[in-house]
Structures are given as structure tokens and as C-alpha cells.
Amino acid sequence: MTESAAVKTHCPYCSLQCGMAISRKGRAGIEIGAWDEFPVNQGAMCRKGWTSGELRGSRERLTQPLVRDCATGELRGASWDEALDLVAAQLTSLQAAHGKDAVAVFGGGGLTNEKSYQLGKFARVALGTSQIDYNGRWCMSSAASAGNQAFGVDRGLPFPLADIEQTDVVVLVGSNLAETMPPAARHLDRLRERGGKVVVIDPRLTSTAERADLFLQPVPGTDLALGLGVLHLLDAQGAIDEEYVAARTTGFDAVRRSVASWWPERVERTTGIATDELRALVDLLAEADRVTVLTARGAEQHAQGTATVLAWINVALALGMPGKAYAGYGCLTGQGNGQGGREHGQKADQLPGYRMIDDPAARAHVASVWGVAPESLPGKGKSAYELLESLGDGGGPKALLVFGSNIVVSAPHATHVTKRLESLDLLVVCDIVMSETAALADVVLPVTQWAEESGTMTNLEGRVILRQRAITPPAGVRSDLDVIAGLAARLDSPIEFSVEPEEIFAELGRASAGGKADYAGITYERIAAEKGVFWPCPTPDHPGTPRMFTETFATPDGRARFLVQEFVGAAEQPDASYPVHLTTGRVLAQYQSGAQTRRIKGLTDEGAFVEMHPMLADRIGAHDGAPVVVRTRRGEMKAPARVVTTIRPDTVFVPFHWVGANRLTNDALDPSSRMPEFKVCAAEVLV
Ligand SMILES: Nc1nc2c(c(=O)[nH]1)N[C@H]1C(S)=C(S)[C@@H](COP(=O)(O)OP(=O)(O)OC[C@H]3O[C@@H](n4cnc5c(=O)[nH]c(N)nc54)[C@H](O)[C@@H]3O)O[C@H]1N2
Ligand SMILES: Nc1nc2c(c(=O)[nH]1)N[C@H]1C(S)=C(S)[C@@H](COP(=O)(O)OP(=O)(O)OC[C@H]3O[C@@H](n4cnc5c(=O)[nH]c(N)nc54)[C@H](O)[C@@H]3O)O[C@H]1N2
Ligand code: SF4
Ligand SMILES: [Mo]
Fold it and tell me: Which residue ranges of the chain lie beneath pLDDT 70?
């Protein structure tokens, strides 16, 4: 097959959205090749990307709608009409009996922009429910909340990722990017070749930390105190960029006073970071011209996640970095469309263009694009965990439609959430495989996967890219867009729902016009021609915005805000019964709940494990490879111990790609982002 026959598209998984070229091979096969010219990954991919074609034609794919038989309690095959008629009839009768909010919708940050947009519109117009939220709430919502508060806008990275090669010091707070976005690790290598420094802050010495010039290993849940301590010392050393602070920010005096008591010994007691390591970090920062602070889930998935991010934004602002070339603050968003998924209205409090649903002007604008009356739009709904927690016998919605999330594995305090799902009158799951959540459903709808349909995604840099259709879908499956349109028609929606991605994207552009995430000037042609366009891009002749904040911030007065943060600490602290910290996260070969990657033979499916230090293993009599039990106040799991010297002795780590980790995790929520505290709780480990 010639190179020209290959279709340029993007990976199904993470927020890097690596470009790839798919060509046909043999009669029915496909080959995944490199797309060298795509700037973000330049032909490099991790093994998840290279093997992503395997689910195609796999026996694991769902290809027929399934409905639960009342008599046998088993799922049985059904036609699309039967399944959609049944769902629509039940939704109508539940809403007639209990009101519009009796039906809830749960979306995902892996859905295309077009799907996220249609899903938000479907909930507000076809269903008339306020109850919609999505799994992004569990991902980067704390950084989003912090970005909005400090900069007036939330674009994960306000600069292209490759900019970090040109900085002087990059500080990674809770990111393991060498495993979670492997091609991005070369930016760290190139930075170091240039003589720049990499700082990694993580309770585990990860493969990312192996690339660090300075590695700090804090107690989980203490990055906030560390940020306060860094600012204290920067101030004591006279390293504050007073000119920048005066010209471009507000609120520094109060923040300066608030960190006065965070002297190094107090930071050491709280975080476990020795004072000389803290001073080494502060010296690096004080001497550098350009500093880039990046946070990821390690810093953010906490009951004080927003405060933690704000404390590190304060550090970046005090050094005068945000808006300066090759410097600043950014959040490394995670899911394929983690950025776009939070902009187009699948979030409980939002309308497209990153508009707020309780803003009358936003309602009027979006309602006019949709052709409905502004007062017909419902108000703000509940956040993801609060929504799931309220389902069924929790007193909230009686039906839930899930698009693109495997809640049973990925929600915190998952046993409790699963019970709520089981108490629903109707659970509908659209998926490509029989996920653990689909297995509980009353109706399962088989949908197309990634390159089987076209759509746009917005990567971690705010670059809107086109994921072109490159593969023929199996017979029997339909796009989520068809499911939405089919249900809307059966629900007598006052407006029609298109199934054409490009047409939906044009409407999304109009709906976003004038909003913070303005896509109005972006088209499929432009994306293809320019290899992605960065929002905001308000008009067809606007070049897009790779770098934000160079002149001004998106706040009303154009200045970034310093905001005072108080350290409270993890919601659950170790005690005599639960003496260690439990943290959770990812491994290279698996993606998220594992629904897709556990079904791919080319990827290692090692099963869950409990990573612990030899000192802890000795104390409890555990051996490498032998099973241990981890217990928290919410549940327990059993898995083999993995004894390593790279983790703090007071901490254990469990990956969440297999059922188990989330039986343990705490559902304490951040007050502003409503992010659950996935990254720390108190646990007991026994043999
Ligand atoms: N292989 C793989 N890649 C992925 C994904 C995947 O599932 N698998 N998922 C994608 C998605 S959606 C996301 S959100 C990103 C996540 O990307 P990352 O944030 O890089 O991944 P995590 O493993 O969740 O957490 C990062 C690190 O935080 C550390 N950590 C734990 N607690 C703390 C703490 O209190 N403080 C600090 N400083 N660090 C802590 C963990 O030890 C871990 O090494 O990855 C994306 N890429
Ligand atoms: N303990 C612990 N828990 C965590 C985390 C952690 O670090 N620790 N991280 C959290 C984070 S950051 C995230 S992002 C969540 C992710 O957790 P989930 O929301 O469960 O994410 P996925 O496993 O990606 O689930 C996506 C589902 O959608 C299906 N799917 C794929 N493409 C499509 C499509 O186009 N349409 C439809 N309808 N379905 C599709 C997949 O097969 C899969 O079943 O987990 C969170 N949970
Ligand atoms: S780094 Fe992310 S986008 Fe790139 S191949 Fe791996 S999973 Fe896919
Ligand atoms: Mo995520």
C-alpha cells in the first residue's frame, strides 16, 4: 500500500492525541503507522497507540444492542428499534411520574467535541434535565477550577507542549508523564541536553523521576504545604519578581503574609521533604530565568486539589512566569478529549464555549443557536460523584444514560456507587465492549470506536485536531451521535439532532462564539491544513492562539490573581487502625478502567498489585509476588505485593486499571472542583 493511501488520524487514548497513519493491509486488516509530520508526537507513540487497532474485528466488540430480559434477568440481543423504543418509553414514563430530573446523563472526556456538545444539548433540550455531568470531574477539574480563579480561563497548557524544551527549570508536581504520555518525555530529555533542569515531585521514584535532576518525595497529599514553603523561601531570598507582580497581578500582599509562617522546618515536618532538598529546589527556581510549573493528577486529585494547584500557580506568578515565553504554569490534562470535553456543555454547570449555565447572557446566546427559549433550559445539576451518589435509592434520578465511562471501576468508593447503579429503574450504557458498567445495564448500545467515525478532539495544549475516519465499523454498531439523535426523535424533542460531525462542529462553533473557548473560526479544512488549530480562534482569518497570557489574563481587570491558600491536609490521616497512606494511579500498558486495553493481547495485563517499600513488607511479613490485603474504611482488595525501594516506606500504591483500587478510595470531595480524593487515604496492609 502506498503512503498516500494511509489516512492521517489520532490515537484513541490519552490527551497527547498522537498523530498516526492507518492503512489497509491484506483483505480486512489494517496497519498502524507513524505520521511523522504531526508536530506533537513526530511519529513517536507508546505501545498503547501502536496496538490500538487490535480491538477492531475483535470478538470482544459489541455489535448488537442488548436488553435485559424481565423473565430471565439476562441480557439478550435486540434490534436497534426495539432497544431505542424501549429506552425512550421508559424515560418518558419515569419523567412523567417523577419530573424531568428523574433522568440523568453521564458523559466522558474521551468523547469527541461533537459528541460532548450534542450530549449537553440532548440533556438540556430533549430530556430537559439538569442532571448531567461526566468523568472529567475525576480528572483535571481541580486544575480547571484553579485556572479559572487565577487566570480567568482554563486551558490546561496555555502554550504548546514542546515549549518546555526551551525553559530553564521544569517542575512536575504529581506527573508521571514518562508512563502516562511517553512521547512527551523526550521534551524533558531535550531540555536536559540544553542544560535545563527537571524537578519531579512524587511519593514514588517513577520512570519520570529517573529523568530528574532533583527529585522530592513528599508524603501524599502535602504538595500544598510544599508550595507554601517554596514561596516563603523565595520571598526570604528576595527572588520575587516585584515588577511583574505589580504590573500583572493582584493579591500578592495577602499571599506573602499567609506564607510567612511556612518556614522550612515546618514544611519538613508536614511534607517529609528535608530542608536542604527544599532549599535546593528554591535555589534552582530563584536562579532560573524561565520556570515552567506543571501539575497532573498527583497534585490535583485531592480534597484540597484546587488549593494545591493555586499554591503552585502562586509560585509561578511570584517568579513572574505566566505569559512569559517558554515559562509559566500548565496542567497536563489526561483524557483524549480532556480539554474539549470540559468546554462544550457536558459539565453540570456549563453551556458550550465554556459558558456558565447560570449566566443569563450565556443562556440567551446558546438558546438562540439551539432554537429554544432561554427559560426552557434547566439550571445547574450535581457534580459527577454527587450525581452518582444520589441515584436510585439515594433519592435522585431513577434512570442513567452513560456515554464513555466505566464508572464501576473508576468511581471513588466504587462499591457504594455500584449499589446506587443497581438501584436504578433504568441503566443504559453505550460502549464498544462489555465494560463492568455495561454488564450491569438494562440496555447496552454498541457504538463505533475512535477512527471508525470522524470528529474533533482538543488535546492537552488546546490544539483542536481532526480524528478522521480511517476504518470501516463492524456491521450493527452506530455512532453515539446516532443514539442521541434516535432517542431525541423518540422523545419528541422540539429540535432535531444532526448525526453529521462536520455539521455539528459548525453549530458548536456558533454556540461557542464569544465564549471563553471560542471555536467559531475553526473548520475541518483548517484543522487538516494546519495540523490543528489552538483556541480561542474567533474568526476564520484568526491564526488561533498557541500561547496565551502574553499581554493580558482573561480576568475582568486583565491581571492574574494571587489567592491565599490554607493547608488542611488529606481528609483521612493514618491512625493506629489504618497506619499507611494509600495512593493510586497508572501504569504504561493500561488505560484508565482498562475496558479497552485489558482486551488487547499486545499489552501486558499483569493485574493489580500493591507497591510497597521493603521496610513495610518486612514489618507485615509480606513477600514480593505473594498476595496481600489492603483495607480501608470503605472496603478491601487482595493483590500480589510488589516490593520496591522506590516508594516511601509509609505509602502503598495500587494502579486503578483493574477492579479493586476504587473499593478503597475516599469519596471526600474538593469544595470547589468536587474532585474526589483518589490520591490519598488511610489504609491497612496485611498478609
Ligand atoms: N498509561 C496510561 N497513560 C495515561 C492514562 C492511563 O490510564 N494509562 N490516563 C490518562 C489520563 S485520563 C490521565 S488523567 C493522565 C494522568 O497522568 P498522571 O497524572 O501522570 O498519572 P497518575 O499515575 O494518575 O499520577 C501521577 C503520579 O502522581 C503520584 N502521586 C500520588 N499521590 C501524590 C501526591 O500526593 N503528590 C504528588 N506530588 N504526587 C502524587 C503517583 O505516584 C504517580 O506517579 O494520564 C493519561 N495517560
Ligand atoms: N483510584 C483512582 N481512580 C481514578 C483515577 C485515579 O487516578 N485513581 N483517575 C480518574 C481519572 S483521571 C479518570 S479520567 C477516570 C477515567 O475512568 P473512566 O471514566 O472509566 O474511563 P475509561 O476507562 O476511559 O472509560 C471509557 C469507557 O468508554 C468506552 N468508550 C471508548 N470510546 C467510546 C466512544 O466513543 N463512545 C462511547 N459511548 N464509549 C466509548 C470504553 O470502552 C470504556 O468502557 O478514572 C478516574 N478514577
Ligand atoms: S502517548 Fe497517548 S496518544 Fe500517544 S500513543 Fe500513547 S496513549 Fe496514544
Ligand atoms: Mo483522567
Answer: 1-4
- Atom of ligand 1 at shortest distance to CA of 302? 35
- For helices 264-271 and 223-236, the axis angle rounded to 10 degrees is 170
Cβ 665 under 6 angstroms from ligand 2? yes
Q: Domain extents for the chain?
A: 6-55, 66-138+338-450+474-499, 141-332, 580-686
Opening angle at CA 211, ends 207 and 217, nearest 5:
70
Pocket test residue of 9, 45, 465 for ligand 3, highest count of atoms within 8 A of CB:
45
Residue 367 near ligand 1, beta carbon < 6 Å: no
CA neighbor of 293 nearest in space, from 196, 179, 207, 169: 169
d(CA 613, CA 197): 28
Residue nearest to atom 38 of ligand 1 (CA): 174
Distance (Å, whole) CA 664 – CA 654: 10
Give every CB contact of residue 248 below 8 A, 6+ residues apart in sequence. Answer: 320, 323, 553, 559, 560
3-class state of residue 483 by DSSP: helix
CATH topology for 580-686? Answer: Barwin-like endoglucanases (2.40.40)
The residue whose C-alpha atom lies closest to atom 24 belonging to ligand 2 is 592
Which residues keep their CB under 5 angstroms from ion ligand 4? 139, 334-335
pTM of the model: 0.97
> Using CA of residue 364, residue 370, residue 371, residue 372, what is the dihedral sign?
negative
Ligand 2, closest atom to CA 111?
A: 35
pLDDT of residue 1: 43
CATH for the stretch 66-138+338-450+474-499: 3.40.50.740
User: Which residues are bridge partners to 29 per DSSP?
Assistant: 25
- Per CATH, domain 6-55 is 3.40.1000: no
pLDDT of residue 5: 78
What gap in Å lies between CA 592 and CA 585, rounded to an integer? 9
Nearest protein CA to atom 6 of ligand 3, as residue: 46
Residues at CB less than 6 angstroms from ligand 3:
11, 13-14, 16-18, 41, 45-46, 48-49, 181-183
Per-residue confidence (pLDDT) for residue 486, from 0 to 100:
98
